[in-house]
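ok so I'm stuck.
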Amino acid sequence: MIENRSEDAALSQLRTYLATAELAFGSRLPPERQLSRELQVPRQVLRKALAVLEQEGQIWRQVGKGTFLGTRPLESNADVAAIVRRTNPSEVMRTRLLIEPELAAEAALRATPDHISEMRVCLRRARASTNWRQYENWDNRLHHAIAKATQNELLLALLDTINLVRRMVTWGRLRRNPEGPPSNHHSFAEHEAVVDAIEDRDQERARRYMRFHLEHVERILLSPRASE
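replied:
not stuck anymore, here's the structure
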């Protein structure tokens, strides 16, 4: 019984660490020895917690390379690079518009309180971001959290692949505010509207608000002046 409580506590600590750490998707977690010291849990207990999160699709591990945040990517980076060479920003946005509104609707049907809590953390951390890199990390994590809330591993893998391609495509745009997102950045309210709809179990509203958000992003990213 004590061992089970210890494992539950370690899993809770690890979830909190991943929810608050400034780690981009695909980033490598600290080595087990270091993570064990930071969380103050035995390595054997930590390994069991990592195994649970790997089964959930929140992390993936590869012998000799380490533990990484997010869903296991395509088997070869060359596969992704080949896709990037054949696509462009317009196709990326069109693909997102075809898929992500339906992910939001499915999340409204299947999201658990833990999923909603994770989304809320992403919303808060995005608003608190002091530079674009931080903001984009939490933006990516929010869209990942919405896909994860569908509880469909294939949909989650598709979204993560799209995001990987999106990060590798050259957008060639300048920002009006290079320091970081302004306090009235359009995505803040749009993201909150999507999460509110998901929490309310309103599939149509979640679908509609996600589409509205992505169409707004598309207009900004693909406009001739391409600036925010």
